[in-house]
Amino acid sequence: MPDILWAPWRIAYIERPKHGEPKGADIFIDLPAERDDEKNLILYRGVTTFVMLNAFPYSNGHLMIAPYRQVDGVDMLNDEELLETNQLLSKAVTWLRRTYNPDGFNIGINMGHAAGAGIPVHVHWHVVPRWNGDTNFMTTIGNLRVIPESLERTYERLAEAMRQ
């Protein structure tokens, strides 16, 4: 009998609309407006920008940083948003180091659909902790990522790191 890798939380990603989100949907507008931060994986709210866990992470602790204001590029951000975003990038690295002790980070932005942006109408940064040897055959051959910790536990651990 073959081994089975269960990842039932991935079904939400698989069943999402295939051509982007429904017209008008923007998680970086909709989720902060709900004011249910734990349910929506929002870890930190700044004045102009916030930090949330990626619900479909590449690795444990995959964070996203976005301005509250919907703009599609970094060239549209004002000085206050640019400053706070960069301050939160630095804090995010500190929180992730404290929680997961990664060997490195991928930090980036995909601006526009052609560049791979999943939500091209709202610029956002990805902060992905990485470990030596964390890319293995599962991603290469199986088109599958193994995330060893639940989003709820990741949220709890990072929230604790942020309180320190």
Q: Supply the CATH superfamily name.
A: HIT-like
CATH secondary-structure class = Alpha Beta
Mean pLDDT reading: 84
Q: Tell me the domain tally.
A: 1
Tally of helical segments: 5
Largest sheet: 5 strands, antiparallel
* Secondary-structure-derived class: alpha+beta
What best-fitting shape do the alpha-carbon axes yield?
A: globular
SSE order and pairing:
Blueprint: H1 11-14, H2 27-34, E1 42-45, E2 49-53, E3 63-67, H3 79-100, E4 104-108, E5 125-130, H4 137-140, H5 151-163
Description:
The protein is α+β, with helices and mostly antiparallel strands and 164 residues long. It has one domain: HIT-like (HIT family, subunit A, 2-Layer Sandwich), CATH 3.30.428. The protein is 31% helix and 15% strand. The protein has five helices and five strands; from the N terminus they run ααβββαββαα. Strand 1 (42-45) and strand 2 form a beta hairpin. The chain is globular and about 40 Å long.
How would you summarize what this structure contains?
With 164 residues, this protein is of the alpha+beta class.
List keywords for this structure.
164 residues, HIT family, subunit A, alpha+beta, 5 strands, 15% strand, 5 helices
